[in-house]
Amino acid sequence: MFNNSQILLKKIKEYKNIIISKHVSPDWDTQGSAYGLREIILDNFEDKNVFVVGEVLNKGLREIDETKLTKEIINNAILITVDVANFERVDFEFKDEVKEIFKIDHHLEVDNFAENKIVDDSAIACTQVVTLWASELNLIISKEAATFLYFGLITDSGRFLFEKTNGQTFLAAKLLIESGVNITEIYSSLFLKNLELAIWYNKAFSIAEFKNNNSIAIIKVDEDVFKNIDLGEEEIKSALSVLSGIKEIKIWLMAYKTPFNEKIKVSIRSRDFDINSVAINYNGGGHKLASGAKINNWDELNSLVKDLEILVNKK
Ligand code: AMP
């Protein structure tokens, strides 16, 4: 089904040391793809060292495997990147020093940085690509692997709601459920929020600014928010969902500055406007209806919002 399925299989067989890297500011799709793929490799191939690197989702920590890497391992390893379109966003310090790179992704192809790749930009999630690849090759998907993959599948598809959810998505879900995923446990761990998060959602809505006849809504989050609440970046960002599902709002975004980052990160969402066309002009990209960008200051945000207004008004 995928063009390079066999090549990925061959590469995994060929290398003893396999490093899997996520994108910076990880979400469940990249982390679920990385952990799921690690389990699949360990369960199906003998004598492999698999290292997952990068930041750990919502923990502000690095993956422990990074401490196990030596120069020799890195120089003789294949790096498999999951859920990352551009090289700059690959969250691995020594990405230039590996022997070769294989890319598994579902973003629009913007940066051809790997020797070989499986990229399906029609897939709602990278975990969908990993699941269907493993199934195509009849590899064992353990309950543990399936659980990681299912996390990514339901978060990136908005619980099977977003536009690109299709038959392949449900096929992946079917395979993962048949591998023993406990759906209710996953849903509880993802969507049952603690009070602090609920209070933050409420506050996030209250500070939203509405522009262009309410067609654009923005939540601006400065460093103080991160200092004053005990929530991770992904949790803070998840409050963007308070602006979704509102008829008048055609494009909604959150711009946030963490204390650990010089730049301001912007997350943009829409139901039907190609926001990716704007994001790419602001050091960003992603998908037609879900994109991210990185800007240097709050003035640049005004310019980005102006471009989004033009996009909405054009229609
Ligand atoms: P986010 O708003 O961070 O959840 O990202 C939405 C989508 O856009 C995800 O698929 C990201 O991988 C992608 N994305 C986010 N930021 C960037 C960026 N600066 N450059 C390219 N793609 C991005």
UniProtKB/TrEMBL annotation:
Under the heading Pfam families, the entry gives: DHH (PF01368), DHHA1 (PF02272)
The residues covered by the DHHA1 domain are 230-311
**Recorded GO MF terms:** nucleic acid binding
Entries under Gene3D superfamilies matching the protein: 3.10.310.30, inorganic pyrophosphatase (n-terminal core)
Q: Which segments constitute the DDH domain? A: 17-152
Any signal peptide, and if so, which residues? none
Q: Which SUPFAM superfamilies match?
A: DHH phosphoesterases
Lineage top rank: taxon:
Bacteria
What InterPro entries has UniProt attached to this entry? DDH_dom, DHH_sf, DHHA1_dom, Oligoribo/pAp-PDE_c-di-AMP_PDE
Which PANTHER family would you find in this protein's record?
Answer: BIFUNCTIONAL OLIGORIBONUCLEASE AND PAP PHOSPHATASE NRNA (PTHR47618:SF1)
Name assigned to this protein: DHH family protein
* Organism encoding this protein: Spiroplasma diminutum CUAS-1
